[in-house]
Amino acid sequence: MSSRFRILLPVLSLAVLLAAVFYMQPRAMSYFGLNLLFNLAVPIALATVAQMMIIMVNDIDLSTGTFVSFVACVTATFLNDAPLVGLLILAGAIAVYAALGALIEARQLPAIVVTLGMSFVWGGLAVLILPSPGGSAPGWIRALMTAKPPLVPMAIVASVLLAAVAHFVVMRTSTGAILRAVGGNARAVSRSGWSVIRLRAGAYALAGFFGVLSGITLVGLTTSADANIALRYTLLSIAGVILGGGEFTGGRVSPVGAVIGALTLALAGSFLSFMRLSPDWQIGAQGAILILVLAVRLVFARNGRRKEAQHG
Amino acid sequence: MNTKAKLLGAAALLSVAMPALAQDQTGDARIALSNNYAGNSWRQAMLESWEKVGQQAVEEGTVAAADTFTTSENQATEQAAQIQNMILQGYDAIVVNAASPTALNGAIAEACSAGITVVSFDGIVTEPCAWRIAVDFQEMGRQQVDYLAERLPEGGNLLEIRGLAGVFVDDEIHAGIQQGVEENPQFGIVGEVHGDWAQDVAQKAVAGVLPSLPEIVGVVTQGGDGYGAAQAIKAAGRDMPIIVMGNRQDEMQWWADQRDANGYETMSLSIAPGVATLAFWVAQQVLEGADVPKDLTVPFLKVTQDNLDEALASTPDGSVANVEYSLEDAKAVIEEAQAQ
Amino acid sequence: MHFGAVRALDGVSLTIRPGECVGLIGHNGAGKSTAVNVINGGLTPTAGTVTYRTTGTGAASARAAGIRSVFQELSLCPNLTVEENLRIPQRDLTGPGWRRRARQRIADALDTVFPGHRLQPRMTVGDLTLAERQMVEIAIGFAEGAVPARLVILDEPTSSLDASIARQLLDHVRDFCNRGGAVIFISHMLGEVFDVATRIDVMKDGRITDSRPRNEFTQQGLIDAMGHVATAPAEARKETSAAERIGDEVLRTDEGLTARRGEIVGLSGLAGHGQAEALARFFLSRSKGRRHARHPEVVFVAGDRGRDGIMPLWSILRNATLTTLPALSRRGIVDREAEDRLGADWKKRIGIRTDNMNNPILSLSGGNQQKVLFARSLASTAPIVVMDDPMRGVDVGTKREAYEMIRAEAAKGRTFLWYSTETEEVCQCDRVFVFRNGRISAELTGDEIDEQHILAASFEMKEPAE
Fold first, then answer.
1. Counting Cβ atoms within 10 Å, is residue B134 exposed (0-12), middle (13-18) or buried (19+)?
2. Across the A/C interface, how many CB contacts are shorter than 8 Å?
3. Chain mean pLDDT for chain A
4. Known Pfam families for this protein (chain C) (predicted)?
């Protein structure tokens, strides 16, 4: 399955879902409506890109949700009251992520265990910083998230910008190519004289960076934080990466797809809400949408392989 | 709000009669309930009450719609998205039982700026543009001690059963009980255990602490723990003190059995799940243009010796006593808040 | 150069000058790959030196000296495009326009080495066929870079190329050397080596035993040069008359592999030519179904203990009785006493060196771990035992014991399918199939089973096709 084809399915599923939402709720087809539909998807998309950086090097991050919650708590407290301290803490958090990557590579630890452990650390720190829900968003981020650019709503602008930046970093730069190579064939990379420890640390640092952005934008939308605010993001981000055409192994990821995957998941929630589906069925239905898309992808992939076999 | 007015309780509110005014002003208004959780009997009863009152209001033409939405996971971000969807769906008012007091503020601000009335209850939100129907948990603790002071003027030793450690509600009720004891110095708390609002936990905790306690005359509780406490005390062979109950069906059943057997007398109070219907009527009143203060207080639903049988009969097994509020109840609550 | 207790390279002296194409040949484990890895700096020699044009040692100076390696096992990233794969070895491809430069370099290299190829630099490697991937890998080896390629090491470069593409490569290698480049060419296709090499070095047991210009060798001479000088013929094999114990044919596979009751059948040839796959296919085809667990028809002795042999956290006993558990249990409950009896029996029979069978398996040496795996298989009732290079990393004493054990079991009517990379082991067999390129290239019996015949069948003799 080539990379161009990889992006087709996420685009298609988003388009179908969007059409269904517009049909059910024509009000959504407006500047205001699109913003409402998608603005909470922006932090999810950022978290998904963060997760993608980890999946890119064949690992998985089970601490995304608590990390974003932690960042949200820092944003609503330190970053607001003492911006310099807040920035230092967030920079430190990114450094911790980088160190984790290095540790995982150096000691050959399973990332799933390390990040699961870290999820408790981040969660504990979040509660320490913000024992009860509260804090407030720094003015600049609130202003940024509620900005009303002409013609295109902020949520769409932010998503497109994110997709473009992530695509550039991961798919276009030479460093991005090497990082993906770590996922594809780490042995070949190390044999060519690269330090895989440093590369993995870099991928984790990128994940930490986008995770920080996710937490900051989330607070920009909610105006305040709570230590459990983003727990869903762990699974949402993993689902988003996969929905967007990524695969768990082999460094096969698509940044544009990941952003679209995150938007699709957010939209699926709205779609089910508009359907007035009972909450007992909602999780199941969300899962069914996911399975449906993946099943379609599998069918496509199989057909592609068959065609290839005929050619070859 | 003065204490006396509160003492009247919900039962008293029912008697306040007000003429219904110009209900057709909101006849095409659509109200939605945004609920974050439906996984326990209290929430189930809450949704049932809403459906019942909402359906009736729609039939009578008071409002055009009273829909409920519950998020599949008890998560603030999901509920924020749900509220944004409601804005899109064009509801005129959104009634919220919030997953987080702060994390929905962004979405609620969006709703307010779209001209939508937002009323939060039970799980309230801090966003200033929304109305809040809060529970005065401190008052709940204080009233228990006041009742015991009425029954036992000479005072005595009390056992306090607390809720889940570290939770806001537990701290609040506890503070109220302490305040009550300060006001009534003839009482002293000799034991304190955590019952986690569950009968089995409370029973174990009370059984564990009983041997070290002197005679106790009363047990102050947080609801959900009274029946367990009674079982533990009975097993220890002690005289049954006055246990203040929390409206759970098993608690009231035990109380009724004891009353029939030996004339046991106590009091029970809690928040009725039907508070959602109070929020519904408050939202309707705001839509109608009534002057409604932003902060309102939920009246307690009290069960006394007189209405025990009635309350027990209307409460299903494993559930909690409930009452649906009427427009008049809402107006009374609003008036009370205005009077302050 | 040592690997553990094994001396992989011993006094190798190899000088490569510009314009030379050295054909490096030798049998399995002769030390070719180790030599290559020492040259490209991947391994540091325990004694001796490697000198490059540049100063210093190690991988970085090897790269700086223009040494490029094209490895036998594919070392591309399938998730990247062709041009992006060039970025991995070429560190100067950074900054704006790196992609354009990479595209130019790889396209030029592909055009030069494989004129008329249909590859695009933007194609994802994962979408390419095996041959196309090998072409890309070779092209990367010859591509222009910050340091031009001066010595390209090609390890079995034509293994998945068809004849005409292979010819293009050979032409290019000759051309490259004529222009002053150097190449080390490792191949089992002796025809190709003769075609392209200016000098042929023969490796055996970690030494270079022969190094002469190509025209001083004949193909038969090469085979002779590769053979072990002192291979003790395995007389022990003849102890029991083969004719007595070998019965009717019990298996026949699509490839043409056959075996009879009580026969020890060897699979030989160069490593990675389809022997392990043939064994796995046969084993899986005979081990399906529910009946298999209790009365297995075939059991497997793994050579790669870590990957598909031992349970590292289990005790010796548990590891030994794993296959036989269904037979040892009644109504789903394992009969512990029977298990202990079985363990004690096998401990005695094959001499597992431990004082307690309940010790963890990792407390044993590699050879004894392997014995436990033998015990696991032989304790079952299966009439056929499949062995995938079971003596890997096992000392000589243990090997002797294992040979005895196998012969004793064969005498009781068991059939063995035995893949080994070592000629000495293969010489224990009654019949040997030599594999080349995934097919059986020769079937040897009786006195034919010797190193000469196996080597001859392992290496491609004919000239590459025009």
1. middle
2. 69
3. 90
4. ABC_tran
